[in-house]
Design brief:
The chain has about 210 residues and is mainly α. Among the domains are: about 100 residues; about 35 residues, no CATH class. Helices cover about 85% and strands about 0% of the residues. The longest helix has about 90 residues. The radius of gyration is 51 Å and the shape is rod-shaped.
């Protein structure tokens, strides 16, 4: 059996190395997107061809075999690095796009929520305003009913207003003691008949002062 020369052993190591690199590159290519992995095909084929060397050629041209195998392995390594880098960049861009899309959806949802909240506030304000108007109307109607029950003219009775103004001089002569003996409801009725405004929020003492 012929002895293996040093050059032949180096050639076999180079061939084994490129064969292993081709096998590893094929596994890597399967994990990458097809479009990115496609250029790896040529480099893998070249590496496999460099590894497919007959024993006869290995013995006859070990230097050429080793040189070709090392060159193919180097090109394959660079191709794999490029493909992996491109895949990582694509994944990063995809992640950023997804984050931007999520942020846009969140912002849109927040804007819609604020718009709904604003509408709700306006609706509640309108309801409160209507309730206040109804309460004021009810208060006036109650005052009118009380004035009618006491035999006094209401605010909406123009014919009764003139005599009431004439009677104010008599009431003024009676002074504050006569007013002080009246209830708040009666004082409010007097204030309404006298054409005063804002009387519904006044206390008894304030009503007496206004009517004095």
């Amino acid at each position: 059996m012929a002895k293996t020369s040093k050059q032949e052993r180096a050639a076999r190591e180079a061939v084994d190395g490129v064969a292993h690199a081709a096998k590893k590159a094929r596994k890597t290519a399967k994990k990458l997107p097809k479009k990115i992995a496609r250029p790896l095909g040529d480099a893998i084929d070249e590496a496999r061809e460099a590894a497919a060397v007959s024993d006869k050629r290995m013995r006859s041209s070990p230097k050429k075999v080793a040189k070709r195998a090392r060159a193919a392995a180097e090109r394959l390594e660079k191709a794999v690095e490029t493909a992996v880098r491109r895949a990582a960049e694509k994944a990063r861009l995809r992640a950023e796009a997804e984050q931007a899309e999520t942020a846009a959806r969140d912002a849109e949802a927040e804007a819609a929520a604020k718009k709904t909240e604003s509408k709700e506030r306006r609706r509640r304000a309108a309801q409160a305003e209507k309730a206040a108007a109804r309460a004021e109307l009810a208060s006036r109607e109650a005052d009118d009913e009380l004035a009618a029950a006491l035999g006094e003219p209401g605010a909406d009775d123009p014919a009764a207003q003139e005599p009431r103004r004439g009677a104010s001089a008599v009431e003024e002569s009676a002074g504050a003691p006569a007013l002080a003996s009246m209830t708040v409801v009666q004082l409010r009725a007097r204030a309404r008949a006298a054409g005063l405004t804002g009387y519904s929020r006044l206390t008894k003492a304030q009503l007496v002062r206004r009517l004095s």
